[in-house]
């Protein structure tokens, strides 16, 4: 089940972040994001009362910035990431979003492959961005206007006759 994160999820999120990245955005930061930051939108993927993944996004100025996105290592490559990501894309229809941005470590091939498959393109590189001097790739996905997209679907259905 995918649902909005609550402050009761913060311990699990922090643990997952530490397992995955070796560090976390931090307990207080996460509490503040989920409880008090109006531009922050966090969703968790829960299976049998266990949080197996989450996505954290900030929405401002027609822009959605993915802060963090992860699936527990034992649950990767089973489609959960894509499901969570598509849920989030669907949620964005409530907002007038023009682009989605994120930063990813140059060495993170698994995440890069995932994002490129979802239509992100490399915008530019932030040199020595991370604490170990690793470069960050800034990725961008342009979001089509919902109505324009719907129109394209209608036209495509007529052309393909299905
Ligand atoms: C990026 C991430 C969130 C993707 O989540 P995921 O659940 O593994 O993603 P999916 O399972 O939907 O897709 C991943 C791959 O599994 C494949 N897959 C999906 N369902 C599958 C299934 N049932 N059986 C086998 N493979 C499957 C997909 O085709 C995809 O293949 P690819 O690697 O060749 O592109 C995950 O890898 C992750 O948590 N990484 C570590 C954290 C991270 O780096 N986050 C990004 C920071 S910016």
Supply the key terms.
162 residues; alpha+beta; Aminopeptidase; seven-stranded mixed sheet; 7 strands; 31% strand; globular; binds coenzyme A
3D structure, described in words:
The chain has 162 residues and is an alpha+beta fold. The chain has one domain (2-98, 143-160): Aminopeptidase. The chain is 36% helix and 31% strand. A 7-stranded mixed sheet has the order 1-2-3-4-5-7-6, with helices on both faces. Strand 3 and strand 4 (63-71) form a beta hairpin. The protein is globular and about 50 Å long. It starts with a strand and ends with a helix. The mean pLDDT is 91. The structure holds coenzyme A.
What is the strand and helix layout of this fold?
Elements lengths: L1 E3 L5 H12 L5 H10 L3 E8 L2 E11 L2 E9 L8 H12 L7 E7 L3 H9 L3 E6 L9 E7 L3 H15 L2
What is the 3D shape?
globular
Q: Please give the count of helices.
A: 5
| Helical fraction | 25-40%
Structural category: alpha+beta
Oligomer: single chain
Work out the count of structural domains.
1
Radius of gyration: 17 Å
Which hetero ligands occur in this complex? coenzyme A
Spans of 5+ residues with little confidence (pLDDT < 50)? none
N-to-C terminal Cα separation, in Å?
31 Å
Q: Describe the main β-sheet briefly.
A: 7 strands, mixed
In short:
This protein is α+β, with helices and mostly antiparallel strands and 162 residues long. It has five helices and seven strands; from the N terminus they run βααβββαβαββα.
């Amino acid at each position: 089940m995918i649902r909005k994160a609550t402050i009761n999820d913060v311990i699990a999120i922090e643990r997952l972040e530490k397992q995955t990245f070796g560090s976390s955005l931090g307990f207080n930061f996460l509490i503040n994001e989920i409880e008090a930051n109006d531009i922050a939108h966090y969703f968790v993927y829960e299976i049998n009362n266990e949080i197996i993944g989450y996505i954290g996004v900030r929405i401002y100025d027609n822009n959605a910035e993915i802060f963090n996105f992860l699936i527990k290592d034992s649950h990767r490559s089973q489609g959960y990431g894509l499901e969570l990501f598509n849920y989030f894309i669907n949620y964005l229809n409530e907002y007038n979003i023009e682009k989605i941005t994120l930063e990813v470590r140059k060495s993170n091939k698994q995440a890069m492959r995932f994002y490129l498959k979802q239509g992100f393109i490399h915008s530019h590189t932030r040199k020595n961005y991370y604490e170990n001097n690793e470069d960050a790739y800034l990725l961008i996905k342009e979001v089509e206007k919902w109505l324009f997209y719907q129109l394209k679907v209608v036209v495509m259905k007529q052309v393909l006759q299905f």
